[in-house]
Amino acid sequence: MGYKKADDVLPKELVMLIQKFFDGDYLYIPRKRGNKLSWGEKNGTRKALKDRDRNIYYNYINGATKGQLAKANHLSIKSIERIISKEKE
């Protein structure tokens, strides 16, 4: 979530109206229904983790050990096992 300065994105009249109720503090405005993004969609984290997991599985089926994958990806062996199991499906 990023912060935007109200003066930069809203009409001056609307900013003045909001200031009557809420002056000089942070205000969260939720997304409209149907516009919500899933976790990691906005900043690309979800895609990066999916790519990482595919790469881990690819290396595993091509001979890398779970220990090597854990060390290379800074993960526990248990996490590597979970990723391998998930990617098999």
UniProtKB/TrEMBL annotation:
SUPFAM superfamilies (alphabetical): Homeodomain-like (SSF46689)
Signal peptide start-end: none
Domain of life: Bacteria
InterPro entries documented for this protein: c-mor_Regulatory_Protein, Homeodomain-like_sf, YraL-like
Protein name from the UniProt record: CD3324 family protein
Source species: Bacillus salitolerans
